Structure formats: C-alpha cells, structure tokens
## 1
Amino acid sequence: MKKLSLYTANSPSVAFFKSYLELRPQIVYINGEYSTEGIIRYGIPQGSILGPLLFCIFINDLPLHITSDSVNCEMFADDTSLNASDKNTATVQSELQKSINEVSDWCDKNAMILHPAKTKSMLLATRQKHQLRPLILNLNLKDNHIEQVHEHRHLGIIIDDEFSWRPHITSTCKTISK
C-alpha cells in the first residue's frame, strides 16, 4: 500500500486497493478438517486479474537499489536478471556480487524471498576464451553458492555461454519434430 500511495497519493484508487488487499481471511482444508481462520498480512490473491499489475508496481523500484553503473537489472514479470560486462572477469564478479547483495537486502526489506536453487550465473564469452582457461564466477546469495551454468533457459530462449545457439536450435528442432 505504501508503494501504491507513492504513485497516486490521496487517490480513491488507493482506498479501493486497500479494501481489496487488507484483512483477507484464509482457511485451510486438509485431511477433511478446516483450520481456524487466519488473516493474510502480505501478498496478493493468487490468480487474480489485478495480481500481475500489483506485483509490477511492488517490484518496480528494485533497479533503483542497484548502485553499480556497470550492472543492468532486467525484469520481466517475476523473472529478474542482473548482467554486467567488462574485459576483466574479476571486475564483473565484484560488481555482480555487490548488486546481488543489494537485491538481497531489497528483498529482505520488502518481505520477498530469493530462491538460491533457482539463482544461476553464466559468463558469456567466445569459444576460444572458454578454451584458453576456465572462466569462473564465484558468486554467493547470502550463505549459498550460486551455481554457474553453461546454458540457461531465459524467457523461453536457451542461451549458452558461448552464444552458439546450438542448445536452443536443438531444443526447437526436438519440439518441432514431435
């Protein structure tokens, strides 16, 4: 509600959303029995038409909390990516780690949870640079090491660390052949 008020202070729409979001009861039915009623303090009704809009308003300020000029924050719905480029891998690692810590702090302040198992890193470079020496990013999300992958599906496209497009083409061909 606080973030929505920043966009439309003293607006009737803020009062509408407040009545929609606050004091929502919840009862759980499990093994043939109902729980006692509880009040939901955070979140948006899942599957609601307003859910995606309210979620976008809620996370809209996340990029403002990343202080590095060399790190970009790309957001699409609930999928957020950080990216940086530099000739020096250590510089990329340092700037990304700083930004990961800032995103983690933002999440803590906004009652959001980052899932370390779903968080991945990838270092994109030419095949020749990958062959010269191992290109390793040592990044952490709180006490969890972030897995470095060679390929990753991002918004339906499989990107590999050499930008060869082979994994995406192979996947597309398999899908088409079915």
## 2
Amino acid sequence: MEEFRNDAYENAKIYKEQTKKWHDKLIVRKELKPGQQVLLFNSLLKLFPGKLKSRWSGPFSVETVYTHGAIELKCSDGRTFKVNGQRVKPYYGNEVRHLDNINLDGST
C-alpha cells in the first residue's frame, strides 16, 4: 500500500511541475517604464456587458514597476494603486503610427 502511495505522490509531483512549466511559458513579459501610459483590463465587466463597451479603461501613468510583476499606476486625479502587471497593456493613443502604402495591383 505504501508503494502505491509513493507512486501517486511522484505522479502528482511530475504533473504539477509540467503544468507550472506550461503556464509559465504562456505568460508574456511586458517591459514597462515609469511615466509610460497604459490601459487597465476591467475584469469586473462580466455580467451582461454592452456589445460595444470596452473592457479596457484608462489611460493611466506607470509610477513604479516592481520586480515580482506588480505595477503601481497613477490616475489622472493623482491617486495611485497597485495592479498585477498582466492586467495592463501599453497605450499608443498619443503616438502617430506611420504605415507603409502597399499597392495591390503590382505597380510600385
């Protein structure tokens, strides 16, 4: 009976290690700097959201980036709060992106 218990323990340990490796592989690291503008994902908007209502709020300014993945954000009214770094994405609203023109007819 003890042998079955040890085998089950080892199998559970191997499964947890593989699951953690798979989960960590899916996490995308974001390079955010203090002063950068970001949008915050609103995870509370789940029950009957409007079709055109965005789940992203902001923009907010990054105050501090911590080593463990937390980010301190600053509102436009001056309040600061901490959030998980996975809930934010960079905001490019103030920047103008230049796109190259591509001719579909083959001429240059």
## 3
Amino acid sequence: MLIQALNLCINGSASLMQYIAEVQKFPMLSQEEETRLAKNWHQYKNISSAHKLITSHLNLVVKIAMKFKNYGLLLMDLIMEGNIGLMHAVKKFNPNLGFRFSTYAVWWIEASIKDFILKSWSFIKIGTTQAQRKLFFSLRKIKKRILQYTNRETLSNEEIKAISNELAVSEGDVIQMSYRLAYKDQSLNSCLKVGDGSKKELQDMIPCNSVSQEVTYQNHEEKELKETILNNALANLNERSRDIFISRYLSENTQTLDELGKKYNVSRERIRQLAEQAMSKVKQYIQSESLKLNLYV
C-alpha cells in the first residue's frame, strides 16, 4: 500500500525536473503534525497518515540523492531508490522514542541509495565490509581534498598510506578503489563502430560465457545417469557391505572402523577389508556400465 501511495504522489512523472517540481509542492510538517501522523501509522496502520509522511519528505530524498550524483548513475534512479528507503523508514519508525522522523529517515534513505550504487557499479566487487563500503563512498571526496592544490591526478605513496590509516583499510584496497573509481561503467546499449563502418550495440559484441540451456540439460541428465549407476552398483552389494560402504564413503557423518566393528561385532581390520572389497565392486560395476554407455566418469 505504501508503494501505491508513492506512485500516486509522483503522478507518473517521467521528467526529473517535473518530478522535483511536484515534490516541492508538498508542505513540510510541524513536529506536532509529524508526531500525530507517525503515531496514527505506528499504532493504527492508517495509510493516509503514512502517505502524508512520505510525501512531505520526498524533497529530502532529492536533496540526499543529489550528494551521490557523481557516481555515473541516473539521478532519477537514485531518487527512486531513496524513496524505497524512505518507505522503509516509515514502516520502522517508532514515534514514542522522541526523535524527529527526518533524522531517522536520513539513515534509511542513504543506505538504500548506497546499496543501489554498489550493486550498479560492476567494477566494485570489494564493497563487502563496512570499512570497504566507507572507502568507496569517501575516497572521491578525500582525493579531491588532497589533490585540489596540486597539479596531480594520482595519490602519492604517503597519501595512500594516510588514507588507508584513516579509513582502516589496506593500502592495496585504496589503490584498487582509486583505479576503479577513475573508470565509469559503459552502457551495454552504447553504440560502437565495427570494421565495415556500421554500428553495433556493446551488448551484441560481448561473448556470452554462461552455460547454454542445452548444456545445462545435458549436465543434469548425465548427473542423474551417474546417480542411477551408483545406486545400481550399491544394489549389487549385500546389506552389510552396502551399509559399510555408505557409512564409510557416502555419509556426511562418516563412521570409524571401530564404530562399525562394534556394530557388526567384528574387528576393525575386518571392517577395513569389507570396505575395500565393497569399493572394488562398486568401481568395477561403474566402469563397466560407463564403458557400455560411453560415459566419462
């Protein structure tokens, strides 16, 4: 329902400027009005109160999204992701704790936008720990602060070391992230010239390394066939040998020779012999069947 309310409030705007103009029409709430609406939603799930809370803070989302406009992504996409964070904030906000909703919502909005940016940057693969995420979102600003009074575009070794200490990451992470941030992703729909002078979209020139459906099906069929052969091999063993083989080689919690010896009231050496004999029979059966079917095992 919150998503439906948000769709109504943006009125289907396709233009960024139109959207910003629309959200600026929604008035800011007084603290008393904000608290009343938040309690109506928190206690009674009043959708109109949630809708008003969202619409009155859409402009806040725009302001926060603007801070991330230099990451090579569409500002409208960042705003929409921030709106999702805003809706989560409305759902989670507890007005009885005494905080302003906007203070609480900022964290959710920024977190949603940052997650979207990290997922969208195909080059960024190390943003897993909190320190590395901080490096991604802080390095551009720190580099600008350091290099603004120099003619250099790259960091010195001393500067890299200082940044690594400040952000609690390795110097290698700083170097790698600096390199990655210097290059923006290229749209797969961008056109490139080919040898004959014609143009093709980048996505048409990238080889597909994923496994085809035919190969996937073939692998599935081969796996099932191998399982069938193994089950038939086990069926050729007597009950005791089959149990020993499974307990020793196929079970997640393998049993020791001593445990099996106590189970069958024989020595551990006898269990070892029976296990080897069972293994030999299973191997012989599998090899024989595989040769018949020309199957690689």
## 4
Amino acid sequence: MEGTMMQDEDLGGPGRRNVFSKTLSRISQVYQSWLDQLTPHVILRWAIAIFLVIMFIVRILVAQGWYIITYALGIYHLNLFIAFLTPKNDPAMDFDDTDGPQLPTRSNEEFRPFIRRLPEFKFWYSVCKSTVISFICTLFDFFNIPVFWPILVMYFITLMCITMRRQIKHMIKYRYLPFTHGKPKYQNHIDAK
C-alpha cells in the first residue's frame, strides 16, 4: 500500500495536484488582496476602468475589426448601468412577500435609503472584468466576424436612448434619485440665543 502511494507521487499523482492547487490558491489570495486594497479608492478604481475601456477602444480602432465583440461589450455595460440605477426592491414590482426596506412611494412615508440592485463595487468589477475578457477576445481572429459596423452603432444608440428614457420615467414615477450629488443634505443647526 505504501509503495503504491510512492508511485502515484512519482508519476505526478496527488502530490502534483496538491502543488497545482496550492499555486492557484496563492494566486487567488494575491488577487483578492489587490481587490481589498483597491476597494476604498473609488476614483482610482474608476480611473482604472476608464483606462481599460479606452485601451479597448484604441485596440478596436487600430485593428479595424471585432465590432461584434465591441457591440456585445456595449450592451453588457448598458445592462450593468441600468442595474446600477435601479433600486434593489423595485416599487414597480408589486410583490407582497418582499423582504427588506422599499422605496417610499408617498411623501408622508418614512425615509428609506436607496439600495442599488447592483452595488458600485460590483458594477466596477464587472466593467473591468468584461473589458479585459473582450480585449482578450480581440486577440483571436475567429471572433472577428465581418459586419457593417454603422448599423451596430445606430442600433446601440437607439437601444441606449430607449432604455435610458424608460429608466428616467421609472425614476420620475417612483420619485427616487440614485445619486447623492443632487440630494439635499440635512445638518443640525444650533441657534445661538
């Protein structure tokens, strides 16, 4: 029995898989450490995301191809942005068994904070990850499907306008603002007597 285990390790059995899994585990830990260090730096994170998107656009313009990949990336980023703007518990969905706080729909209801369907960090992470994957796809010629790109651009612009119009109507109907920039700030004012 002992001789069989020695032969398995010599032939690349469990011992080799153990080294491989340890290496993957270590890479995963380093990657997670980098993400944890980037988490509080919102501006730096979004600067990285914008840099990746610009590098992808430059790659597409220089290579003059991979328009289907670009279109798919644009649609995916649009869907992420809509999920970022949408509240977690959508007031348009009238489910009686919803858990957690919901947006107030009347002026006399209690204030509840805006909770996004897609949190900012996950939005950023998905944008970066999808851009890197799309960039990698542009390295392979079989993803370069010939299409008439102006039609894709017009279709994307039309889709974006329709989707954003519907989202803005939803925001107006249910009176919520997903950004804190334009919201009033309440402070305690102590009157001097």
